[in-house]
Amino acid sequence: MSHTQFKLLIFVFMILIVFNLFRGLYFLVTGKGGGKNTARSLTWRIGLSFLLFLVLMGLKLSGVVEPHALNEAPTTTVNIKTTDKKDDGKTLEEIQQQDDNSGGRVRLKQ
Predict the structure, then answer these.
(1) How far apart are CA 72 and CA 22, in angstroms?
(2) Which residues pair with 91 in a beta bridge?
(3) At what angle are helices 36-62 and 3-30 packed, to 10 degrees?
(4) Which of 50, 64, 92, 101 is at a distance of 20 to 30 A from 3, taking alpha carbons?
């Protein structure tokens, strides 16, 4: 399955799910069908959502779709100015580590 076909499959499922959601809303608001049409539309929406989930899980298990990690933010050091001379030039992590070792107090001054 190509990348384009995969996106098209997901798009068609999403359009059908949203269509049935709004169709159920229409029947709910207008009262047509005595509730049967509303229930049928919402049942179709739930069924299509479940089927989409199964398709995605099947594609993942077969190796067609590979999940990716979230983009992790690069770690940066932050220098915080404090009134204590012993903390000058230390990063936030170093100050917190020092405070964690001194009884659990955290001092952050700006």
Answers:
(1) 37
(2) 79
(3) 160
(4) 50
